[in-house]
Structures
1.
Amino acid sequence: MTSTITLTEAAEQLGVHYMTAYRYVRTGRLYAEKVGGQWVVSTDDLKALKEKPAKPQRAIDAPVQLERRLLAGDEAGSVQILEDAMAAGADAEEVYLDILRPSLATVGKRWADGEISIADEHIATTVAHRVLARLGSRMTARGRSRGTILLAVVQFDQHSIPTAMLRDLLQVRGFDVVDLGANTPSGSIIERAAATPDLLAIGLAATHKDNDAAITETLNALHAATDVPVVLGGSAIRDAEHGRSLGQCTVSTSPLEAIERFEEIHAAAHAA
């Protein structure tokens, strides 16, 4: 009889982050079943995945290459790196979460550590926005809409890339997405929510670590104005406990976990 282990243990054996292993499950690379509230995989399936050929070195180096192109202000070169990855078989999640997101995280860390200037960071961010705009038009799914998700970054938070990336990843799953972008007052979110038909959920992003008061104000205002579920995430949210302490919401600690929360909301809405 084949033995099973948890997905967390599988991630450790693969030498990858848990959310990478979870993406393997979501994309069909690794079969898993949910037992007692947690994902489990068979050791045979895990062995088969481990025996598959490793990614070519170019794919492994792609985040480093992209970081260099972003800092150089090279939009065409940045797009080419991502297009090469897609041509080699990478899906939207791999391109955004394994290449673009790590590149931007490295840029942010280098700025925080004083290795690059504010101007350098702004150049990289501006190019990233243009790259997302060019790729975003391809991130759509055919067929009937699965409902609309409203995304926004909390007030006083100027980083709009997290919701832009999440928007595209949700669109390829068949959701319609309205992205209000950065620095969005709670009143604007409420106004747009009221005007959006078939609104399934609201996604709230927070990246500024000293902005808890604005997050709480927004969550309280949304709770008072609408019964639409709210998913809170972003780098400012340390963990699920921290997120829940800020107000009534469902918490996600990564883009893939946010997607899973939206999928659960969709499933619950259609099971009712």
Note: The domain at 148-271 is CATH 3.40.50.280 (Rossmann fold).
2.
Amino acid sequence: MPPYRAKKRFGQNFLKTKSVIDSIISEIDPKPDDKIIEIGAGRGALTYPLAESKASIIAVEFDNDLIGYMTKLLADFQNVELVHADFLTYQPAIENYILIGNLPYNITSPVIEFACQNRDKIRSCYFMMQKEVAIRLASSAGSKDWSPLAIFSQLYFDIEILFDISPKHFSPAPQVVSSYIRLTPREETDIPYPDEFDFVVRSSFQQRRKTLLNNLSKIVSDAKLLSDVWNKLSFDLKIRAEQVTIEQFLSLTNLLVERKILTYKKN
């Protein structure tokens, strides 16, 4: 089969080194009764060895040329379904599946958000992504990398950076180091006001250079009651969003809602 050339417009960088592929497959540890959804099957570097495990594979690929390539490559496997689709518009009809993928930078955040929204159907996630993005996801309060995406991800998943992957292991070689990470659903945190929590967190980071109090003053209706909330939580007046833990954001949201000063309105 002739080699397939990567298309820059799709952000394609194909994994090529067998030892790295073996390490990835070892982490996933596929079993015959597993259900696996792969985002971007590419040239089948992972799809093929996953298929050999006899697990049920749904390989979602946006590039129509690769669908033809992969159809020939996987012709002998009955346990692989190739789906020609943009994963961001794809709606899986299965549950209790493992979600994997080598994520281009431009779809990393949407895929993580998809995982958060579908966490009740996902058993675990294994993603390759830019190292700097992986570091952000695994960051903690007090770090400059702390962000809404990290907060929402860690609210629902335990995040582990398993190992880094040098550009030399891809074709064509990207300009950045990649990291391979695992997301494992964690026990559900009680969130009395999930929509309001989302609103408060995103609003808090709206202008990172400003204090949390300054950012939130724009979304509350009573400055005096907001000051009371600050005292209740023992927050410093100069605290910024990147210093606030998930638990503190939950407490903050609960107090703002219970005191009826949050201007958020559900659609």
Note: The chain is about 35% helix and 20% strand.
3.
Amino acid sequence: MIYPKRNANIELIIFDLDNTLYDTIEPFEKMVQSCSLTFSDKINTVFKQYSVFSEIAFQAVQRKEMPLEQSYSYRFRLLLEHYHVPYNMDTLKHMQSQYRYFQTHITLSDTMKNIFTLLKQANKQMAILTNGPTYGQNIKLEALNIEVYIPKKYWFISEQLGYAKPDKHVFHTVLNTFDRLPEHTLMIGDSYHHDIAPALALNMQTCWFNKDLHKNKLSTYTVTNEQTLFSMIQNIFS
């Protein structure tokens, strides 16, 4: 696949974390297996439903309606009740314990390593912009060994910032830190609502990591897997 060069003068690349740098379903699936849970749907469908409940819990935390620690068990409780799976408090605690464990053992794929290496060799500035709790997101970034490519001072996490994507303030914070113009910045992420739409509204270039093959949405670039992302990056920066 050939990708036209929309703007060769990209100076800053911003990466989302969850479901962009690693596949978020993997630690979830391992947790389900470890806890011997049985659901009536396939794991992909169960995870999509969990993601809905996770977003509900995250928004409740953002509105200060729920403590962060409570939100973890809350999203699992909603999931189990949705599928009519019996549970008690020990079940919820075990699920969260196992999920945290597997989230701290995620790894960066060889393709993603090649992408970061190529950008580093091209002397491009890079940053992470992610929604979530500071401690939890830092743990995942450390597990992925992202500091090899991007210094910790350029890991922008919503809890730390006081704003969350899609709020324009978080994007402005990154741009101001690097003193870069939006049109010379590329945002790479999987969520159209949180990553792509707000970046486009600020006149940033975007790469939508469209793993679910949604249609009829605008993005400067659209890729569906890590290999097509690597091909796009090669075309722009090699």
Note: The chain has two domains: 12-23+107-237, 25-103.
